[in-house]
Design goal:
- With 262 residues, the protein is α/β, with parallel strands linked by helices.
- The chain has eight helices and 14 strands.
- The protein starts with a strand and ends in a 10-residue tail after the last helix.
């Protein structure tokens, strides 16, 4: 499955403008043969928008989800994107996957909140593994800081995730996450990991880009620079199967030794 990564911060504070950016990117991704487009963390609204997070938060099945579903259907590809999700009085930092026919396949709430900013605006989710079947692959969702913890990524591996989509808003000085940690997570868990970052200055944060799609061999199949980019690369099920056969980390585990880690 050809996968497109949209590295962009869109237009912080404007859902309407961000939907336009997403629509344009979906058109380019579809023209390039992509079956999936993935956008960064909090893409629909912007990340560092303060109280705007609560004001712009919507239910998982709200108007913006309908708008993304229309874009996905019109361009014929699935879309994964980050947004602030409202559930009653609670706001989550969420990511949603919508299929090419407009079906809402999966919705994930960030389980590990980063720093005072996120803790002030969001409630952490409680479900570490959220998956969906897409074009013959088992696709999982995770958000930014979550991937820096080995346990939830390993939980995805044990649940059979083939492609882990990680919408991200990572900033200086943590470039090593994209450069080193993401390929290692892909290798040690024998999966593809798509890490899709924001760019540039936004409030107090300086997002560094470097969006990456790493394979199960630990090799970055594609990597962005510091500016706005649309990356296209292929997810190869044969490489995934061959790599898992050659590197049997999951079958060689000895869970009885690890109880104290929990």
């Amino acid at each position: 499955m050809r996968t497109a990564l949209l590295q962009s911060s869109g237009r912080p504070g404007s859902i309407v403008e961000n939907l336009k950016v997403l629509d344009e990117a979906a058109g380019r991704a579809a023209a390039g043969g992509a079956g999936l487009l993935a956008a960064p963390e909090m893409f629909l609204t912007g990340y560092a928008i303060g109280d705007g997070i609560g004001l712009l938060a919507e239910p998982a099945d709200g108007d913006s989800a309908d708008a993304v579903a229309e874009i996905a259907t019109r361009h014929g590809l699935a879309i994964a994107y980050g947004y602030p999700e409202r559930a009653g009085d609670t706001v989550y930092n969420s990511a949603q996957l919508i299929s090419a026919d407009g079906t809402r396949l999966a919705n994930y709430r960030k389980t590990h909140l980063f720093g005072d900013f996120e803790r002030a605006h969001f409630t952490p989710g409680e479900q570490p593994v959220v998956q969906a079947e897409l074009n013959g692959l088992r696709v999982g969702l995770m958000i930014c800081y979550d991937v820096e913890f080995p346990e939830p990524v390993r939980a995805h591996a044990l649940a059979g995730t083939d492609l882990l989509i990680v919408p991200t808003a990572n900033m200086h000085p943590f470039q090593f996450v994209a450069e080193s940690l993401v390929p290692v997570r892909a290798w040690e868990n024998q999966m593809y990991v798509a890490y899709i970052n924001r760019i540039g200055q936004e409030g107090e944060f300086d997002f560094y880009g470097l969006s990456t799609l790493a394979g199960p061999d630990g090799v970055a199949r594609t990597r962005a620079g510091r500016g706005e980019e649309l990356l296209l690369t292929d997810i190869d099920p044969e490489l995934l199967a061959d790599s898992r056969a050659a590197n049997p980390y999951l079958t060689d585990r000895r869970p009885g030794l690890y109880g104290s880690l929990a």
